[in-house]
Write a structure and sequence with these properties.
Blueprint (H helix, E strand, L loop, with lengths): L1 H31 L14 H19 L6 E5 L7 H8 L2 E6 L2 H6 L6 E5 L12 E7 L8 H14 E10 L16 H7 L6 E8 L2 E9 L5
Parallel strand pairs: 1-2, 1-4, 2-3, 4-5
Antiparallel strand pairs: 5-7, 6-7
């Protein structure tokens, strides 16, 4: 009986933490609007400039890895869709933006080649092996629980086609973890996404924090 009670308490604790994080992002989206997807140290007036800087740093690296036959890109944790329409145009195909915060999706710009889908915390609303590219930009640091993080990784593996491309950009600053943000190393993410053999291509800095850019391909399925 004690073991069962312990398991129940653990499940409840995890659920409370998980729901707390979602509630925090909902509140943040309502309070800050599109700026909620950035380091909150930026002002509203800086949103466009920061987004443009990120595109200038990241898009060329992604473009260099394209084979030319990519039709669909998944923007995981798309927030208010700062990148999603431009990702569709970059591959001259379709982009799917997914996020658990509906307020973010409601802010996202409409585009004929973009579809926005709400997602549960650790489930990607896409079919198995249905996307050519998965784009993840400053999302996983906001997932504190290792169990949830590994579920997301499993979902990326499930939805990404064999030889599909994964681009990951995360904050690896040497800083203390916050209540809703966790700083992890490049090596951690490379190990986490072992199926994609992520290579560390470059870095950029945002408010003096180092943001590595990693790119890899999904292994061929046996």
């Amino acid at each position: 009986m004690s073991d069962i009670l312990s398991q129940i308490k653990t499940f409840v604790a995890r659920y409370v933490i998980s729901r707390s994080a979602i509630c925090m992002w909902k509140k943040r989206a309502k309070q800050y609007g599109p700026r909620a997807a950035l380091n909150i140290g930026h002002s509203d007036a800086e949103i466009e400039a920061v987004t443009r800087m990120q595109k200038e740093k990241i898009f060329p690296l992604l473009k260099n890895e394209l084979k030319g036959n990519e039709n669909t890109i998944l923007d995981l944790g798309c927030g208010p869709g700062r990148f999603t329409p431009d990702l569709a145009e970059l591959i001259q195909g379709k982009a799917i933006g997914v996020d658990p915060i509906q307020d973010f999706l409601d802010m996202a710009p409409k585009h004929e080649d973009v579809e926005y889908r709400p997602m549960k915390e650790s489930t990607i609303p896409a079919d198995d092996e249905s996307v050519d590219i998965v784009w993840i930009c400053l999302v996983l640091g906001g997932i504190i629980k290792t169990r949830v993080l590994r579920s997301i990784v499993s979902e990326v593996d499930r939805t990404l086609k064999p030889e599909g491309l994964l681009l990951l950009t995360e904050n690896t600053a040497d800083a203390k973890d916050g209540a809703y943000w966790k700083f992890r190393s490049v090596e951690f993410y490379q190990s986490l996404f072992g199926f994609a053999e992520l290579k560390h291509f470059s870095d950029y800095y945002d408010l003096d924090e180092r943001i590595p850019i990693m790119v890899g391909r999904n292994h061929l399925q046996p």
